[in-house]
Amino acid sequence: MSNANWEVVIGLEVHCQLMTKTKIFSGAATAYGAEPNTQADTVTLGFPGVLPVLNHDALQMAVKFGLAVDAQVAERSVFARKHYFYPDLPKGYQISQYELPIVANGHLDIELADGSTKRIGITRAHMEEDAGKSVHDAYAGQSGIDLNRAGTPLLEIVSEPDIRSSAEAVSYLKKLHQLVVYLGICDGNMQEGSFRCDCNVSVRPRGQKEFGTRTETKNVNSFRYVEKAIEYEIERQIEVIESGGKIVQETRLFNPDTGETRSMRSKENANDYRYFPDPDLLPVVVTAADVARVRSTMPELPEAKRNRFVEQYGLPKYDATVLTGEAALADYYEAVVSTSGGDPKTCANWVITDLLGALNKLGKEIGDSPVTAPMLAGLVARIADKTISGKIAKDVFEAMLAGEGDADTIIKAKGLVQITDESAIIKAIEDVMAKNPGQLAEYRAGKDKLFGFFVGQAMKATQGKANPDALNRLLKEKLAP
Amino acid sequence: MHTLSIKQLGEALRARKFSSRELTQHYLKRIETLDPQLNSYITVTADQALAAADAADARLARGEGGPLTGIPLGQKDIFCTTGVRTSCASRMLDRFISPYDATIVKKLQAEAGMPMLGKLNMDEFAMGSSNETSWYGPVKNPWDVTRVPGGSSGGSVAAVAAGLAPVATATDTGGSIRQPAALTNLTGIKPTYGRVSRYGMIAFASSLDQAGVVARSAEDAAQVLQAMSGFDPLDSTSMDRPVDDLVAPLGRSIQGLRVGLPREYFADGLDAGVRACIDGAIGELKKLGATFTELSLPNSPLSVPTYYVVAPAEASSNLARFDGVRYGHRSAQAKNLEELYEKSRGEGFGPEVQRRIMIGTYVLSHGYYDAYYLQAQKVRRLIYDDFRRAFEQVDVILGPTATDVAFKLGAKTDDPVSMYLNDIYTIAANLAGIPAMSLPCGFKDGLPVGMQLMGNFFDEAKLLNVAHQYQQVTGWHTQSPKGFE
């Protein structure tokens, strides 16, 4: 059998670090990258006698997410203890929501390659605390424990097994990533582990109703790795089954260096987590009024923003999609449009082609762009009021990127103001005609192609500053026999 | 000085009849001479006590401070105290020095100005009813040093009964304040769950644990409980409601008070001598105008089995943090991670603690959870409903605190079930979360007998008022053990 005879079934569990200032159950800071154990207070360290108190901001963020995916926000949700022994788990249990999560029954619509959309169910999303980190390479023969991350709030978002390919998985993940960043509840930094994914993958013969046995590949932390890990798992599972073997339900790890997954532990060796409701925390109660309050703080979501960009600015869907890919980029664009007085499509071209192109080369995010929105708006304004031509504007943009100041400063310093004085342009044209009698004769004899030659020469004579429209018009008049 | 009440001590201190330093020194001296017979203190903190006494004297000299300022106390070694060993009577925490203070330590010491004499012995992690499971050895009952003082707050009661502290903190998960108070002729109260902060009190069973006080009278207990109580933002289960005045209502008449006598608490198993003392107390209360009704708490027989599912389940989880990684005992023998856990915990925990961790782990395990833990939670609800119904008819419920007087050291150590049955009358109040107290009501063969009063949620003032009125017409609570007068 070939792969075409198999159907792939994928469900994803995403751990998303919530951007609270302090931990989910204590006042310790959550900032990334601090000296080991400097952000571990007595609660984080699980000292005898300490008690957890829920961080209200984490709850607000979870509710925000629930509203964004059109889910049910539970009026009453419960924290449970999940027990296992590991040195980076200070209390011997993780506080997590188990039977009664804060968010249930939501969905996210993704776009497929053929342009159609597909709805992916979100089974649940629940709050929990992150564990610390074990450091195995810092001390010879010993392991270090860094508990800075322990107690960082996480939202675990569990999808339905609605995903049918690695491409759909990546599309879902990108959409989810965009959403949580838009909502301002997660910084989305995958390298730092703020957004990481467990992939549940199984295959079944096409047409079969029952799911095949699944494996779970843990902690995959980039879109590309997710794609690779899933592809590897699909191939591996089909190969095992086709050669007469059976898939074992197990947890696997992805190795980015080899692109392979390997078994970590099978279900038989799985921990018995002994979940039970945490008696130190009361059930979390969210009233209709609480939900309404959170709803009033919801930002415009990516889809709504894209549709508005198409309507309000008359942009093609592609442009609108790119510009609304990130809230910061959309804000940048809107700032340029509203202050430059330029045409929205021209502004979109500048942002998409010139700005994003440049940022991509520099490896910078929109937030650290050397050309700020007011600077780009200043440039577009000078094109709109015909101070400079679109061509000169490219040079000004390069100069702005190089840190030479804003558009007006550069235009002034380099004397780039467009020549609109027709007598000056006519003088330049006449000079060119006088210097090139041969070409003039040929043109007049019917060699129309030479018009471009004269445009180039006249532009050169004006150091590119001649207004192109005026130059074209005057050149036509003068060259006419 | 050690026979004066809290109120008298406060008045004498404010009148500068003696200083807090003198009073504290007096107790330290008594501890030094008398405690070797009892083993009630794990750690005596003489230097800190005297420094705190001096600070209290300074406050008093400025005309500042409250009714408790300058009066020393003993702290059960389950409460975290900065810079002082907090052992929970376990080898696991033998060298543990807390970097922070429990909320009640802040309230009683820093705010109320009570110097701490030391940390009091207890059953290991509060698991026991005889104070024989302590890593630091058993505590003896000052009324008969061959007998147990009860547990788990055995050090607290022995110290107060013997005049080695005017008052002491204690904790009660299934009777650990009331049973030892009964066995040593003291007044001990476990308030409503959520009334006193659990922050900094080392957890045994979180949904049952509640801090309280053991004292020589209801009046003494009322003053200290008042200072301990109140909402704490650091404890999510603490109640955000104002603290009632517990002292002012003590003088109220109890004419017309409706008292319920639960049939199940007077059934087989109650010693006849104890019964006689309780009957005597009922007679006294009738004279004070109380009326009595027999009632039923039908689910009472399920209290002990329910408790021995819920409490070990929570304990097995709460004690998971003692793993030898960050603090506490770490085995020197471990060769790998698994051994680090096994040996550190195997060496650090005593047999009773290990037994409860195993029971708790079992009842929470996959496949057993529904049959045990979930079922126990349902029964717990039924027990709560029994009390809810009862308090529709009566103001307080009265019964024995323990089935018998103090037993001999070692008498029950090989029979855990008979040991667990010590708490047969006290456990239900913890399961329901209601306040309950024990107070002296007579002697059998020279050993104290206690009676228990249980009240509705947040009715601490009512319980203390009944106890105080009773103590105005009886003298049982004024008796002191021989050799410790």
From TrEMBL, chain A:
Keywords, comma-separated and alphabetical: ATP-binding, Ligase, Nucleotide-binding, Protein biosynthesis, Transferase
Enzyme Commission code: 6.3.5.-
Upper lineage: Bacteria, Pseudomonadati, Pseudomonadota, Gammaproteobacteria, Nevskiales
Keyword Transferase among record annotations: yes
InterPro entries named among the record's database cross-references: Asn/Gln-tRNA_amidoTrfase_suB/E, Asn/Gln-tRNA_Trfase_suB/E_cat, Asn/Gln_amidotransferase, Asn/Gln_tRNA_amidoTrase-B-like, GatB, GatB_C_1, GatB_Yqey_C_2, Gln-tRNA_amidoTrfase_suB_CS
Functional description taken from the UniProt entry: Allows the formation of correctly charged Asn-tRNA(Asn) or Gln-tRNA(Gln) through the transamidation of misacylated Asp-tRNA(Asn) or Glu-tRNA(Gln) in organisms which lack either or both of asparaginyl-tRNA or glutaminyl-tRNA synthetases. The reaction takes place in the presence of glutamine and ATP through an activated phospho-Asp-tRNA(Asn) or phospho-Glu-tRNA(Gln).
Biological process terms in GO annotation: glutaminyl-tRNAGln biosynthesis via transamidation; translation
Gene: gatB
GO molecular function: asparaginyl-tRNA synthase (glutamine-hydrolyzing) activity; ATP binding; glutaminyl-tRNA synthase (glutamine-hydrolyzing) activity; transferase activity
UniProt-recorded name of the protein: Aspartyl/glutamyl-tRNA(Asn/Gln) amidotransferase subunit B
From TrEMBL, chain B:
Residue ranges of every copy of the Amidase domain listed in the record: 22-464
A GO MF label: transferase activity
Catalytic function, reaction form: L-glutamyl-tRNA(Gln) + L-glutamine + ATP + H2O = L-glutaminyl-tRNA(Gln) + L-glutamate + ADP + phosphate + H(+)
Active-site residues (renumbered): K76 (charge relay system), S152 (charge relay system), S176 (acyl-ester intermediate)
EC number(s) per entry: 6.3.5.7
The organism's place on the tree of life at top rank: Bacteria
Top-tier EC class: ligase
Transferase recorded as keyword: yes
A GO BP entry: translation
GO cellular component, one term: glutamyl-tRNA(Gln) amidotransferase complex
InterPro entries (UniProt xref): Amidase, Amidase_dom, AS_sf, GatA
Protein keywords: ATP-binding, Ligase, Nucleotide-binding, Protein biosynthesis, Transferase
Role according to the record: Allows the formation of correctly charged Gln-tRNA(Gln) through the transamidation of misacylated Glu-tRNA(Gln) in organisms which lack glutaminyl-tRNA synthetase. The reaction takes place in the presence of glutamine and ATP through an activated gamma-phospho-Glu-tRNA(Gln).
Quaternary organization: Heterotrimer of A, B and C subunits.
Family label: Belongs to the amidase family. GatA subfamily.
Name of this protein: Glutamyl-tRNA(Gln) amidotransferase subunit A
Taxonomic source organism: Solimonas fluminis
